[in-house]
Amino acid sequence: MNDVNLVEIARRFERKLATSAVAIATASAPLADGWMTFGGVGSYINKSSGYGFDRDVTDAELDALVDFFASRGVEPKAELSPFAPQSLLKGLADRGFVLREFETVLYRPLQAGEDLSRLTQGTPAGLRVERVDPSDDVAVRRFVEVAGSGFVPEGESMPEVFWEMGLKAARNPGSDSYVAWIDGVAAGAGSCEVGDGLTSLFGTSVLPAYRRRGVQQALIAARLARGLEKGSDLAAIMSSPGIPTERNAMRLGFQMAYSRAVLVKPGAGLVPSP
Predict the structure, then answer these.
(1) Residue 181 resides in a domain
(2) Confidence band (pLDDT; 50, 70, 90) for 195?
């Protein structure tokens, strides 16, 4: 990874996002070199992703993208890297897609034998990070409750569709889930998936009372160690621009790779997805 190829990083990460969504989706379909996925109204995996690299997306495929989501009552959504061809952007614009938000993808090379313990120096002595046993239903539910807490307004319960997707993701054989404990309290949680040399970090939350105490950095370090254990040469994480996740990742050696664009096609009666 000495000569960084950002297009290749995007290809690997976007493919991982797409196939991870397929693994827990209730419905999915290929779209050019990527996928469309649906997990129920209100699900965060209602999106199309992973395409725009290997070949052009045809007009018929873009029409199928719109129909895949609209027929299920949700806004069509396209998540794209900045390396998507202009023809794809024009095709989406012609169909009424508009920009909703940007997301930042950060990357970090992983080197065999790297000492990751130094990344957590300065964290509280009582903080420990444990991998969740996917066969332990109590542990899995605890993980989903903590990991999902940061994705809903504070004090509100998680929607049922979040629980369903969270439980499926935590039990997915391709993922590893971690909980950070402080003084017997599950203070934070996050997941990772490892495949094809890439460790993808996602779904991290820290309870408000335990923020700014190194919990998220400890969770990142634990998942990087898992990636090294499984032979990864690269780690990547996605974040909204400027939030603590981005800053914590950069403190641990991550660098910005690219910004993703999230495009949606609003329509009467179509429910937006997170």
Answers:
(1) yes
(2) very high
Which SS3 state, helix, strand or coil, does residue 219 take? Answer: helix
CA–CA dist 182, 138 (Å, integer) = 18
Do 179 and 143 touch, CB atoms closer than 8 A? yes
The predicted structure's pLDDT at residue 3: 61
Pairing of β 234-239 and β 198-206: parallel
User: How confident is the model over 236-267, as pLDDT tens digits?
Assistant: 999 999 999 999 999 999 999 999 999 999 99
Domain containing residue 141: 111-232
Whether 98 and 144 share a structural domain: no
The CATH code of the domain that includes 218 is: 3.40.630.30
- The number of folded domains in the chain is 2
Spell 78-95 as b/e; 16+ CB within 10 A means b.
bbbbeebeeebbebbeeb
Within-domain flag for 189? yes
Global model pTM greater than 0.85:
yes
Helix (H) or strand (E) holding 256: strand 255-264
